[in-house]
Amino acid sequence: MLDSAKVQYPPLPLIQTWVWMMIESGNPEIQDKGRNNLIAAFGSLAKANEYLAKMNTK
Predict the structure, then answer these.
(1) DSSP output for 4-49
(2) pTM for the whole structure
């Protein structure tokens, strides 16, 4: 069984860049790349959102 505390995620500034790409870039190709990077790193956008919400409360 994996210990979720040991999961390594990309650095926060990189994650924030992917979110910017997905939401604010205005370019469909860049939006897709940001979304795909987040999904590849977290498994889903929902998990990425949970992680960002947790990091913003620290």
Answers:
(1) GGG-----HHHHHHHHHHHHH---HHHHHHHHHHHHHHHSSHHHHH
(2) 0.83
Condensed to tens digits (0 to 9), the pLDDT of residues 12-51 reads: 999 999 999 999 999 999 999 999 999 999 999 999 999 9
* 8 Å CB contact between 45 and 38: yes
DSSP state letter for 22: H
pLDDT given at position 33: 98
CA distance 52 to 43: 14
Taking phi over 0 as left and psi of -120 to 50 as alpha, with beta for the rest, 43 belongs to: left
